[in-house]
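Sample 3 of the quickstart, ligand SAJ:
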Amino acid sequence: MNFDTICVVGLGYIGLPTATMFASRRKKVIGVDVNQHAVDTINRGEIHIVEPALDIAVHAAVKEGYLRATTRPEPADAFLVAVPTPFKKGQVEGGIPTPDLSYIQAAADSIAPVLKKGDLVILESTSPVGATEQMAAWLAEARSDLTFPQQAGDNSDIRIAHCPERVLPGHVMHELIENDRIIGGMTERCAGIARDLYAVFVRGECLLTTARTAEMAKLTENAFRDTNIAFANELSIICDKVDIDVWELIRLANRHPRVNILQPGPGVGGHCIAVDPWFIVSETPEEARLIRTAREVNDGKPEWVINKIKLAVAELLQANPDKTAKELTIACYGVAFKPDIDDLRESPALEIVKNIMNDHPGNVLVVEPNIQSLPDVLNEARKVDYETAWERAEVHVMLVDHKSFKGKEMNVSEKKVYIDLRGVW
Ligand code: SAJ
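Result:
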């Protein structure tokens, strides 16, 4: 099938790079976002998010006339929905957050009026199992003049599929092309047609399955990683208690040919791994026991770190009775949610620094080479360079292993405290 015009709804971390990929293959792309600022920025050939190599690609796509942003969907041959799927605010049942599909519903409502026979609609947003069928139901409700796969199977007027994104922030432009892609059709025909669309730029293999399996596959991938990180985080807490260097331990254990332990840290951040496993737990709370526990272990790690810092401060004060807490300076290295990016969303490091800052206002130094200035929530902390922090602070906390933090000269002082959550020091 030929796709001359593609409409991408949601121009965020996934939607914008995907829209740009199609545009770079000379497809006419209409990018849709409710955020007027994002639309205006893109139409100037600029970007409102940070992702390596995206700025140049967007600039070229807009300049050559293949990509145009707007706030309302327009008729197209294929529609891609890449909107957020967060939790419902304040709705936590039995400790389990509830997925919020309202952005998908709003996207379905906005594309329904412009749908025509033969169109393909793809849900890319990470979603709980059944979300694609739900989106199809919303579309069918709005357009009783058209048939949908749940009504007419392979003969439907509109084809629907779920094709979850699996790209790693920071490597999106490369991984969009090279990663294998799971294509979950509501029918086999839907899957086949969706594959034709991705074949426009994907060099990885396109693997066809059902929409429900594709939904579960994406959740499974992130739950797998979360569970493995939880194992490493739990190990780090155990090792701390029994006075064993967890980094050395993992290095040694990983020399076994069938063992590959991930790295512990201050917790799991970002908007995917810390969220998606809950979509499994909320659907099957009785069965998803390990997945839930992993989430709880990772979510509990920042608090463990905060307590560790508090204990270290208390011990330091005890050893130096002439000092008060107010006179102690604490240096925190890294606030991003993972190394070498500027993204602070759902960052455990940020949560830790915020907490320490509340206890020690005015005495917290932050080293974060990937951002220009500290966010408002850290208004009482000061951004300094690595060397200044190293010289001035009595307590040092390594939170994110940015490349530039590694291989530094280490002149440590017995009078100072060093807490390394990343195995850098
Ligand atoms: N982390 C550790 N230890 C590790 C690895 C990671 O503590 O050994 C932490 C990171 O510091 C970070 C968090 O986990 O706080 C998540 O980082 P990540 O690099 O593992 O993953 P994300 O959230 O950037 O991207 C993930 C990817 N999923 C998998 O690797 C299974 C990516 O492929 C997905 O496309 C993305 O989620 C998504 O959008 O769902």
